[in-house]
Amino acid sequence: LNASVVLDLSGISKAPVAQVPASATSEAAMDASSKETQAQIVQMTQFILNEAKDKAEEIDTKALQEFSIEKLKIVNMTKEKIQQDYARKAKQIETQAAIARSTAINRSRLEKIKTRQDMLTQLAADSKDTLAAQLRDEAKMKSFITKLIVQGLLMLLEDQVEVRCRASDDALVSQCLDAASKEYTKVIQQETGATRMVRLSLDQKVKLAPAPTSAKPGPSCLGGVVLACQNGSITIDNTIDSRLGLVMEQAKPVIRQLLFTK
Q: 3-class DSSP state for residue 166?
């Protein structure tokens, strides 16, 4: 058995060895190198893609943050603008309401003043009508004119005085001159003890306006007299219109208290 094995082994050792072509080895080496290169390329590509993805995510995150900040700025600016517009419009409405309220108050006040003035004017007109009706009595008119002349003389204290009246009252006033002069002297005597005379004359050049009539509008006079001296440089207006206006002015507080409670 050992001899046969030895023979077999020797036969094997003497068997021819197969030879591998050089080109096949080179191709195998190139295939291995190509696979390795391809693997490296894939690895590098994957790395680049991952880097690009990370960078893209970073850019997206930063863009989102910047967008959120910018949006917040815009929202705050818009909110502030809306608040400012609202405040401005509210102020305008408040101002307009205050102006309207003030205008209404002023209008009401002016209407009240006008109504009161109209009532005072009507009261003065009614008083004129009442006076005119009462002074149609010649005796009352003569007494009234005489007192008006005496009052004017006591204010002037002159020696020569002209008396002006309506043309229609010439005759009546002429009848009052002597009585007025005597009454003036009497009053001066009683008050001062002195004797003072006055010379009265009727002014024929200057006449007062005629009595008021609805058919003839214009300047009018209810009656009374105007006393003048020193060539007309000094005058005392003692017409009924002047006296009534003075009385109305002095009585306005009382009239207002009686007529206008509020």
A: strand
